[in-house]
Each structure stands twice: as C-alpha cells, then as structure tokens.
Task: structure prediction
Amino acid sequence: IGANFAYNKNEVLSLYPGINDFLLAGNQFVVKQQKAYTDSNGVKHAYIDGAFPQIKVTDWLRDPQGHIIVDKNSGFPTPNGNLTTYGTSNPPYILGLHTSVSYKGLTLSVLAEGRFGAVIYNNIGGSLDFTGVSAKSASTDRTRFVIPNSVYDDGTGKYVTNTSIAVKNGNNDFWASTWDNAGSPLMNSADFWKIREVSLSYTLPKNIFGSNSFIKQISIAVVGRNLFTFKAKDNVWTDPEFSNTTGNNIGTTDINQNPPTRIFGANVNITF
Result:
C-alpha cells in the first residue's frame, strides 16, 4: 500500500501598476491577490487568493445576502455586468493511492487519484439547456416557476423574499435565452476521485516449463483505465479533467471536446 501527495501554492503578488487582472484566454485570468472588503453598497467581496490561473464569469445581480434579484414583473433574474472571480482552475491538492496484492502468481493492482480545490466552468451545460436536453431544463416541467432563493425590489429599495413571482416563461425564453446569460449557474467544484487503473495479472508457475524449455516465464494481464470517476455533487455535467483545449484555457468544458473514455486492454509477456 502506498500514497503520494502534492500541494501547489502560487500567488500573483503584483502586476503592471494600476492593473489587478488581465485576460489570459477564454475565462482564464491572471489575478492579483486581493484582500476581502465591503463595497459602498454593503456587499461583501471575498478574499481573492491570486493563484494562477483564475476563472472569472458573469453572475446575477444579488442582494447583500447573496440572493438573486429578479424583475418584479417578469420574474427573470437580472445579469450583473461585472465579472466575478470564482477560484483557480489548477487544483492545488493532488492525492494518489495505490495497492498491490499477490497470491500464488495472481496479482491485483489498483491505482486511485484525487484532485481537489479547483473550480470548473461547465459551458457544456449552457448548450444542453439551450437545446432543451438537460435535466435542469426539464426539472420544472418547462412550466412557470419561482426561482429559489430569489428576492425582488418592492419599489422602495427594500428587497423582499420572492415566493409568488414566477418566471413569465419556463421554456425557451428562460432556459435558452435568459438563464445562461450569466456564467455563474455553470460554475462548480472540479474536485474528483478517479480509479486510474486496475490490473489483474497471472504468472504461470515456472515448474510447468521443463528445464530445457526456451520459455522461462509467461504472464497474462487484463487492464482497465479510468474505470470510475466520482465528481463533486454540484457537477452534474462531465469529467472535470477533460477540457476544450490543451492550451491555457483549462477549466472550461463545451460541446466541442471529446467525451470521457474508459480504456480496456490485455497483454501477454513471455520471457525467454
């Protein structure tokens, strides 16, 4: 039984004077480390660790408690024009576990790996919502519904808990044309555990070969790779290890990438 652990800590301490961030690629930004603060509207802004790289996407307008603000007449949420930083797409914690058990020539080996602490922008979810094939777009039977944990302005500047103002349309107008106008519904944890490899091998007893045999040993093995993936609960889309590019725009999925795969194989080793 064995294990290995890696921790990556990096910080962007300074950028060009007057610049706190700049676009790297896609939704990836280089972000200067910032302290937590409360703005003039009383909204609390979280501490930004400045790890490289960071994902920034749009969000909805929210009250100081973080509730989505909806329009009093349509029930639709209102997009916030500013980008919100959600965290790094590079997992700072990587843990590997492996074990191997042998008995009378039979050997079972298992390798597992977990990556934690990163976030992912599952843009593939927006495409599924747009085409109406996602579970989320069907979760309300494509009828009108009240957006959970939402509030509205009662006209005096006071936010009231929304319990009755349903979206004016729970079908195409909402899921395909409104909900994914903000990137925040598609942000989630990129944590995962994977069974990287399982192999089962058998080495034939040496005594079956005669002393004059030119074959000294034969072993047979079957191997499976990436057999199981255990994602974070809020990731209802796809494997967070798969991205739509091999470049800097990591931590983003879409419909143009290859789907996750399992690999099965077998081999025979003969020693002469």
In short: The longest strand covers residues 217-231. Helices lie at 124-131, 135-138, 172-175. The two ends are 31 Å apart (CA to CA).
